[in-house]
Design brief:
The complex is a heterotrimer of chains A (338), B (247) and C (302).
Chain A (H helix, E strand, L loop, with lengths): L5 H6 L16 H17 L6 H28 L9 H7 L1 H15 L1 H5 L3 H5 L5 H34 L3 H8 L2 H25 L4 H25 L1 H4 L7 H13 L25 H19 L3 H5 L3 H22 L6
Chain B lengths: L4 H11 L2 H23 L4 H39 L2 H5 L5 H32 L7 H26 L3 H19 L8 H12 L13 H24 L8
Helix pairs in contact in B: 1-5, 2-3, 2-5, 3-5, 3-6, 3-7, 5-6, 5-9, 6-7, 6-8, 6-9, 8-9
Chain C lengths: L2 E10 L2 E11 L2 E6 L6 H8 L7 E6 L2 E2 L10 E4 L11 H11 L5 H11 L15 H13 L5 E5 L7 H16 L3 E6 L2 H7 L2 E6 L2 E7 H10 L2 E7 L2 H10 L3 E6 L4 E5 L2 H14 L4 E6 L4 H10 L1
Parallel strand pairs in C: 3-8, 3-9, 6-7, 7-8
Antiparallel strand pairs in C: 1-2, 1-4, 4-5, 9-10, 11-13, 11-14, 12-13
Helix pairs in contact in C: 2-3, 2-4, 3-4
Classes of the chains: A mainly alpha (338), B mainly alpha (247), C alpha/beta (302).
């Protein structure tokens, strides 16, 4: 039998070198998710990170609000309801690229930064599980985009109130708008945040993630828009391939379901029948005039109107994009590099 | 010697690393895909010319050329400085101007070839053959010019700041996208406008189909200024390059 | 081949990284010793022309290095960072450096350099597959390929196992004996001690000591030492120690007594004898200032 000598006993001891124990409450998974969410929200707006980190978000939020401020100021000066430069349902379309820039600049700070600085292993050796991380990040970006999306609508509404002859009546009239505003801001927030997070999570370095998000959004729009405008009869469904266009469609539909459709009947978009082979000059002239009339008519419509698709289709595509993005995010965090 | 063949070979290998050439090829293929789609649903030949004149710049000039240049130029200096391998290049008796020019010529050449082929192929497919007005060729040359200019500018940005890439993106979206459309003055400093001017100058197409907003002579002048300025900036920055602190 | 720094300084805004450092490197191996953050890398980068001196002069053979690309023909620099062109093989990487230097027989020089660091077996594998130590060797081969008269290495033994370290030290010693000027930076005393003829000690950006390594070591052991003693009878022992010439001061505290001595060797030999003669039991003898930092801080004051 082996006797424990004094040496063995000493070798097995734990020395008190003044290390402080923590005997307080441990918050567990929920606490971890909440903390990561709050931290993410602060990161998106550059809070607690020095001046440099605040430039982009502050500038972009300012640009998002500027048209609403102009509208409110004009309404105040010229009397309510006269000038409608920027409307609720058209607002996303007006500021769509600012949203794009916001996502492109801030999403990498949220997710790609962790990848670049190899912090993921640190996070996942705590109470945080993989889905928790994704949830916290999605939550933070969605909340941020929701706030950013909501602000201009609030400014617009207040502009209407204070420029109206009867403020209380204006307030009462705008009540049905409120759920629409909230719903639109929410859909945009969720859509853009999921798509940009999915893209940013697979890129290694922050500047490249920004370029990737911006590139994806720009390429999608630049590819889809011209095709839809010039071949609306055959290419209309292509509109669903651009996340920004889908967002535009959903917001327009939420605010005013009629604006999603074209103000003309669908025959307008069909190709003009080519004149018969040996037509006289009058027929040719009539043909050219018709072509010109149609293209000019199209110039006055928005891309969504030209596409002339039912609003529920945009909603369905949004859901599809969300599912795909969620899939990408879940799979991506299965394996992390240390 | 102005171009260093060894650095040239190295730059080619870096530029065509796995992920990069896939992204760049996909980008260059997009206008061709668009052209094929247009062709499949073509109406009449006359309309195609006008279509193409508005479609190609929208996709090629606005997105494909700048982003191909961006992806390739980011491999020029940015990545090397970031991970520290630039030390091996700088501690050699090669003059800094030679390093810059070699990197520029190689990167710009790859970009020019890709975008020229992409644009000309797309244009020809969209029209369904060669066109007599030279519009397709004009767009091709415009794309080539844009490639050269964007490559130089993005190389310079990558050397100036760590966030150089971001500044370049902001320039693309805000300056060229929004401001240049609103304010006529900013058009003088927009590479996109130079591309359009050159395309207009080369082609002999009717103004109703396609016209550029900047006179061709001014576009050429400004292009020269931009190119010279960007390259001079690169050389100066590299001459004064100091290695950053760790992390 | 001389490397000369005269009142060289480097500051970043308010932070001074290198403070008025002057030295001249002689042929042979010199060690640049200092704790992390002392400024060793900064000095090396200044010598190699990757940092511009904020003040003073950094010269090689009388020519300032900054913005003089020709100087690189006679310098080789092995950086600390691990990054190399990962897609190249070891041989291709060394060959690239050879060709960038414009060597006539680049392939031959590359093979010789690879043989010198004993990397022939793995030379055709991509560097991305190398271990840390192999990467270091590849970097050193790339730096030796153009046969430079001056060699600068920033913490070259990081990640090497003892056998590789000994081999590399032998290589560097041989190169130093051939008449090359070699500067090796490290924060490990033993490495520098074994390898270098002369030592430069850097602390807080300043040159704290310079000279042959044996003398520096002597200085560091001959400095005043402090011991904390716990005994059965402090005062009796103190009285006996005060009579000893090696003791410089005795101080009483609650936990024990503190004794300062100017001659470590004499003190350590005398202490047990004195204690036994005074019939005092020594319960604990603890040296109070053996860390590298305290050694360095003594050097800075002294």
């Amino acid at each position: 039998m082996v006797r424990m000598s004094a040496l063995d006993a000493r070798a097995g001891a734990i020395y008190d070198i003044g290390y402080q124990h923590y005997d307080g409450k441990r918050l567990g998974r929920a606490g971890a998710v909440r903390a990561l969410y709050a931290h993410g929200l602060r990161t998106v707006f550059g809070l607690g990170r020095g001046v440099r980190a605040k430039i982009a978000p502050v500038a972009l939020v300012a640009f998002v609000i500027v048209p609403a401020v102009i509208q409110a100021a004009l309404a105040g000066l010229l009397g309510g309801g006269q000038i409608q430069l920027f409307t609720h349902e058209g607002y996303f379309r007006t500021t769509v690229w600012i949203f794009g820039l916001f996502c492109a600049f801030q999403t990498p700070e949220l997710v790609t930064g962790d990848q670049q600085h190899r912090v993921l292993a640190l996070y996942f050796s705590r109470a945080l599980r993989r889905p928790d991380y994704v949830l916290a990040r999605v939550g933070a970006l969605t909340t941020a985009l929701f706030i950013v999306g909501l602000l201009p609508h609030i400014v617009l509404m207040f502009g209407q109130y204070f420029s109206a002859a009867d403020t209380l009546k204006a307030m009462k009239d705008s009540v049905p708008q409120l759920p629409r505003i909230v719903a639109a801001a929410l859909v945009i927030a969720v859509l853009l945040s999921m798509v940009s997070l999915a893209i940013a999570s697979v890129i290694r370095r922050r500047p490249f993630a920004t370029a990737a998000i911006l590139g994806a959004l720009m390429v999608a729009s630049a590819f889809v828009t011209p095709l839809v405008i010039t071949r609306p009869d055959k290419m209309r469904y292509l509109v669903l391939a651009s996340p920004l266009m889908v967002g535009d469609g959903v917001t327009t539909w939420i605010f005013d379901t009629t604006k999603v459709r074209a103000p003309v009947d669908s025959a307008f978009f069909a190709p003009v029948a080519p004149p018969p082979a040996h037509a006289d000059s009058a027929t040719m002239a009539r043909h050219r005039a018709e072509v010109r009339r149609r293209s000019r008519g199209r110039e006055r419509m928005t891309v969504i109107q030209i596409a002339n698709l039912p609003g529920s289709l945009y909603l369905g595509t949004t859901a599809l994009l969300l599912i795909v993005s969620a899939g990408v995010l879940t799979l991506r965090y299965r394996h992390i590099e240390t | 010697m102005l171009i260093n063949p060894i650095i040239a070979g190295l730059t080619v290998r870096q530029a065509l690393a796995r992920r990069r050439w896939i992204i760049v090829t996909v980008l260059a293929a997009l206008p061709v895909v668009m052209a094929v789609l247009i062709r499949i649903y073509a109406e009449t030949d006359e309309k195609s010319l006008a279509d193409m004149a508005s479609l190609l710049p929208a996709l090629s000039f606005t997105v494909v050329v700048p982003f191909v240049a961006l992806v390739l130029a980011s491999s020029g200096f940015g990545a090397e400085i970031d991970d520290g391998t630039v030390v091996y290049l700088l501690t050699k008796p090669t003059p800094r101007s030679e390093i810059v020019l070699t990197k520029f010529v190689v990167t710009a050449s790859i970009c020019v070839v890709l975008t020229f082929l992409s644009t000309v192929a797309a244009g020809s497919i969209a029209i369904g053959g060669l066109d007599s007005t030279g519009l397709v060729l004009g767009f091709g040359i415009g794309a080539a010019l844009g490639s050269v200019l964007y490559t130089a500018v993005f190389l310079a940005l990558g050397l100036i700041t760590r966030r150089g890439l971001l500044v370049g993106l902001v320039y693309l979206v805000v300056w060229e996208g929004t401001l240049a459309r609103l304010f006529a003055g900013t058009r003088n400093l927009s590479i996109r406008q130079y591309m359009l001017s050159v395309a207009d100058a080369v082609s002999s197409v009717d103004a109703s189909v396609f016209v550029a907003q900047l006179p061709a002579a001014r576009a050429c002048w400004m292009s020269g200024v931009v190119l010279f300025g960007a390259l001079a900036l690169c050389i100066t920055r590299l001459r004064n390059f100091e290695i950053g602190q760790a992390g | 081949m001389t490397v000369e720094l005269v009142h060289a300084s480097k500051w970043y805004g308010n932070v001074v990284a290198v403070n008025d450092v002057s030295f001249t490197l002689a042929p042979g191996v010199t060690g640049l010793l200092g704790p992390n953050g002392a400024g060793k890398s900064t000095i090396l980068h200044m010598i190699v022309g990757l940092l511009r001196p904020s003040g003073g002069v950094v010269q090689i053979n009388g020519t300032p290095v900054w913005q003089h690309a020709e100087v690189y023909r006679s310098i080789g620099f092995v950086p600390e960072s691990e990054s190399v062109y990962a897609f190249l093989s070891g041989y291709e990487f060394v060959l690239l450096n050879a060709r960038l230097h414009g060597l006539g027989d680049a392939a031959g020089a590359a093979m010789r350099a690879i043989a010198l660091v004993e990397l022939e077996g793995a030379k055709d594998r991509p560097i991305a597959t190398y271990s840390k130590g192999m990467r270091q060797r590849a970097k050193i081969a790339a730096t030796l390929v153009h046969d430079p008269g001056i060699l600068l290495l920033d913490e070259p033994f990081n990640g090497m196992d003892p056998k590789q370290r000994l081999q590399m030290m032998a290589v560097l010693r041989r190169l130093g004996d051939d008449g090359r000027t070699i500067l090796v930076s490290s924060h490990i005393l033993e490495e520098v001690d074994r390898l270098a003829d002369a030592v430069l000690v850097i602390l807080g950006g300043r040159l704290a000591a310079s000279g042959p390594s044996r003398e520096i070591r002597q200085l560091m052991t001959d400095r005043p030492h402090t011991f904390t003693l716990r005994t059965s009878d402090d005062r009796t022992l103190a009285a006996a120690l005060v009579r000893q010439s090696a003791t410089t001061s005795v101080e009483f505290a609650v936990g024990g007594m503190t004794v300062r001595t100017s001659d470590l060797g004499a003190f350590t030999r005398a202490l047990p004898v004195i204690a036994r003669e005074a019939r005092v039991s020594l319960h604990e003898v603890v040296p109070a200032d053996e860390s590298l930092e305290s050694v360095f801080s003594y050097l800075v004051q002294g």
